[in-house]
TrEMBL record:
It comes from the Bacteria. InterPro entries: AAA+_ATPase (IPR003593), ABC_transporter-like_ATP-bd (IPR003439), ABC_transporter-like_CS (IPR017871), ABC_transporter_ATP-binding (IPR050763), P-loop_NTPase (IPR027417). It comes from Pontixanthobacter luteolus. Residues 7-241 form the ABC transporter domain. This is ATP-binding cassette domain-containing protein. GO terms for molecular function: ATP binding; ATP hydrolysis activity. Keywords: ATP-binding, Nucleotide-binding, Transport. Pfam families: ABC_tran.
């Protein structure tokens, strides 16, 4: 039995208009995935991958070229009003009138949604984001972290079942990042489905139940976070040996070994299963004379490559 779906995206394409008859940039290339209800869903990818374009489509700020999307069961085109009421968006940019107080920011936003004064939650939301003591301060006097938290409260004024945070911790310090993580976790514990876009693998590991990866406008993975993180726990050893080689060494501890030149190859291994020293000893046992070695951790790009090769292999 499948999980209830909070957001459903099917074959979404976005091509921006080009200049002077030129074909515009293809930002999304037929993306499809579901966001299950009740969890924290990570949407990962480098800057420019298409994450924000997708979020802006859900928010109604960008018109998709083709495909369909629904929010809490409401089609974003045919049931636009209900779809918008089911989602709260926290943008990357800090945007609100600097001369309003936090309380006024929330009251005005509630008014835009037609929420009766008796049903507004402004005081409650200010307490939830630890801004009750700044209730009557001008928004322009708030620190960057306070402004981020106010944006989250603003997105929740209409009590949406889904909250989307677009790169909420980009450019913030470690302490503020931890505070935002705690706030997101608390909202999820209270029953809100959270979608988090980020290019920080650590953030996804700490917070998300499931992760989708977008790269160059394409969805290249949609996996439970644990599977994703395990792939990022690989290490890579680049080896230069004496004399030309035609075949790379092989061993069960090597996740992958690829020739990269006439005298060079790269071995990928899981750092929970072996050390660099063990890997190099195994190489020498197979008759190779090592001239030079460099090691590096797998980064997000390596995870992209690994997941793409898994998909192409039919796994």
């Amino acid at each position: 039995m499948s999980e209830p779906t909070a957001i459903q995206i099917r074959d979404v394409v976005k091509r921006y208009a080009g200049d002077k008859g030129q074909e515009g940039k293809l930002a999304l290339k037929g993306v499809s995935f579901d966001v299950p209800q009740g969890g924290i869903f990570g949407l990962l990818g480098p800057n420019g991958a298409g994450k924000s374009t997708l979020i802006n489509i859900l928010a109604g700020l960008v018109t998709k070229t083709s495909g369909t999307a629904s929010i809490w069961g409401f089609d974003i085109d045919e049931q636009r009003r209900n779809a918008k009421r089911a989602i709260g968006i926290v943008p990357q940019e800090i945007v609100f009138d600097p001369f309003f107080t936090p309380y006024e920011v929330l009251e005005n936003q509630a008014g835009f949604y037609g929420i009766a004064k008796s049903l507004r939650r402004s005081e409650e939301l200010l307490r939830a984001v630890h801004l009750a003591d700044k209730r009557d301060a001008y928004a322009r006097t708030l620190s960057g972290g306070m402004k981020r938290r106010l944006l989250i409260a603003k997105a929740m004024v209409h009590s949406p079942p889904i909250l989307v945070l677009d790169e909420p911790t980009a450019g913030v310090d470690v302490e503020l990042r931890r505070l935002l993580w705690e706030l997101v976790t608390q909202l999820n514990d209270d029953g809100v489905t959270v979608v988090l876009t980020t290019h920080y693998l650590e953030e996804a590991e700490q917070l998300c139940d499931r992760v989708a990866i977008i790269n160059h406008g394409e969805l290249i993975a949609n996996k439970p976070t644990r599977e994703m993180v395990d792939m990022a726990r690989e290490k890579i050893v680049a080896v230069t040996v004496e004399g030309e080689i035609s075949k790379a060494p092989e061993h069960p501890l090597f996740g992958k070994c690829e020739l990269t030149g006439e005298k060079t190859f790269e071995i990928t291994y899981h750092k929970d299963e072996a050390t660099a020293g063990q890997v190099l000893a195994l190489v020498q046992e197979q008759g190779f004379t090592i001239e030079d070695v460099t090691t590096r951790e797998a980064d997000l790009e390596d995870v992209f490559v690994s997941l793409t090769s898994v998909q192409e292999g039919g796994a």
